[in-house]
Amino acid sequence: MKKTLFLFISASFVCAFTTPVVADEQIELLKQQIEQLKQDYEKRIQALEKGLLAAQQAAKKNEQTLANVQEQAEEAELASDDSQQMMAKNSFNPEISLILDGRYASYQNNPDNYQLPGFSPGDEAGLVPEGFSIGESELTLSSNIDQLFYGKATFSFADDVDGSTSAEVEEAFVQTSALFDGLTIKMGRFFSAIGYLNSQHAHTWDFADAPLIYRALFADQYRDDGLQISYIAPTDLFVQVGAELFSGRQFPSSGSHDGIGSWTTFARIGGDFNNENSWQMGFSHWHASNIDNRETDNINHTATTLYSGDSKINAIDLVYKWAPNTRTDNLKLQFEYFDRDEDGDIALDDFLSGDTGSYHGDQKGWYAQAIYQMNKQWRTGLRYDHLSSHTKGSNYLLLENAGLESHGYKPERYSAMLEWLPSEFSRIRLQYNNDQSYKDSDNQLFLQYTFSMGSHGAHSY
Amino acid sequence: MNTKKILFIVIFSILIAIHTAYAAAKINVFACEPEWAALSKELGGSLVSTFSATNVGQDPHYIQARPGLIAKIRKADLLVCSGAGLETGWLPVLLRKSGNSKVQPGQKGYFMATDTVKLLDKPTVLDRSMGDIHAAGNPHIQLDPRRIKIVAKKLSQRFQQIDPQHSKEYAEKLANFKTRWDQAIKRWNEETRELQGKSIIVHHNSWVYLQQWLKLNKVAELEPKPGVPPSSSHLSALLKQVKKTPVDLIIYSSYQDPKAAAWLSEKTGIKAVAIPSTVNENESLFQWMDHVIQLIKDNSK
After folding, report:
1. Which of A6, A156, A453, B3 is the least crowded, having the fewest Cβ atoms under 10 Å away?
2. Is residue A216 located within the same domain as residue A352?
3. Is B90 in the A-facing interface, judged by CB distances under 8 Å?
4. Statement to judge: residues A108 and A66 lie in one domain
5. Do B51 and B25 belong to one domain?
6. Which phi and psi (to 5°) does residue B201 adopt?
7. Residue A87: its pLDDT value, please?
8. What is the pLDDT of residue A90?
9. Where are the beta strands (DSSP E) in A93-222?
10. ipTM for the predicted complex
11. Rounded to a whole number, what is the largest CA-CA distance in chain A?
């Protein structure tokens, strides 16, 4: 009994002393376990977080692919169809346009009596027939030929004074479109770059007839077979220089020439004052040194005047345009001045006189015009023409008979026109002229229609 | 003869000098309309210098082929235009006169925005009695920001083709623009939800893309035929029509004559609003579209 008591007591002692030791160990254990747990949880959380992130990323990716798909769908819906593009690009047909032009002309004087004292204009320079007539109807074909060339041909049908209708090749040329920076070469038959109006087709002119100086010098418009080279400088200011070489067979040159019968040089500058006001100025020079028997009508259309010799023309042109923003009206002012110097011999193709004589002529002329477009459908304009000449020659009677002696008379003309433009493709024009080309002042009235069919023409400045 | 030769040499060397002086490093962009100049600025930044042939006050159908424009196109590396016949009255002349081989049709420097997107209003019958219609479809695509995005992508590719040295920069600029533009589209979509289904009368048929995007319902045009100015008979017929079935808004472009719209507005009490159909000078595409949407919202309440 004593033994057990002792044991108990000693055990309690042991316990009393050893219990703290045991507890410490347990705490340590617990701590370790907690730490373990903590780490476990952290790992798990990390794994969870990772999973979550991956899930989120996947979701985002899905969203993005969805967005991409949506975008692709939208693009598929809205982007162009390549096959259709190809179809459009495969249309090789040239652009075709047909201009129908006709008029009714009424004159107070007999148009057969028309003359321009001091100028002896070409055969085709008369007035258009009285009454109804078709003017110049033009058929134009044009197209890019390949990556280098552009081609254009215009055939015109016109009534001659005697009532017969003639068809002719008005223009037929090829032109480089991508030769060298700014350089363009044109060859074939084309309207010369002399002056401002000359290179534009008559149906784009603002009046039913050519300015008097064009009628006097060029029988309305000058063109020939040849070559044109022009260069545009890479400047902010528009600067163009060029030269043309011609066969010299066409009026106001004449005769056959081995090489170059006539040539021109021209320069143009232009620019914008601001986005409403723009301008262009041109200088040009025409030269023919071996004109051989150029034929013109004599003063009373009874014989032919023949001229052989040199001819030089200097010209200045000025154009100003005002096209205000947010409005449909616009204004165009235009001025051209020509001065021709000729030195040679004249003869009358008339067996009665048969004379020849020396001839020196200085012929000048200018016109100024203002065109105001009130709105898309109405335009109106005024024009004034003025010519003067000073001629000398060895045979006064010959000059007189040829119509080259003006006796100081200065031809003048006042014109006014009103246009109605139902659309971009049609135009009805009423024009009145007070024509003082010769001493009997004439009142002239034109009613002209111009319609364009086919490809939408672009207008030059 | 000797003086002539000297003169020729002098002129020639001056031209060469001018030529080299103007051969600048930046890509010269000739934009036919201001929106394409603005887009080029977004996508090209300081790598390009832009010029717009027209401004917000001009009708791009009717532009004079001015010498100043020929000079500009002469120096261009890239032409960015609407195409689809919008510039047919003046651009071909400029191109032919410029003698610039880089920007001729088919070249890298010839970019027509309408070539990149699907066009609406493709006529099934081509006849001029229908007015000045565009055979390729309606060219006024700039009013649909979704189409602008497609144009941007293709235009950026074109920049990279022309100026491959900087292709990385162009790609970055495109990505940047796309992010901002997408956000903007989202915002515009929310802002214009209330406009869906509203019916409008337009002056010229140049708003089809805006109509499609905002789901507006066009009931009539003030022009009796495209390109033909409003006539009194057409307007009185419209007046009758509007009195029968009401319309929410009359829209015309700020370059168009406001008379017809004002007349109809006065007779019917429907608001008529002039909307700039392109960006103003120094305005970004974002600011312009904000402005357009604000104008429509404010006036159709």
Report:
1. B3
2. yes
3. yes
4. no
5. yes
6. -115, 135
7. 46
8. 44
9. 95-107, 131-134, 137-144, 149-159, 165-176, 183-191
10. 0.81
11. 187
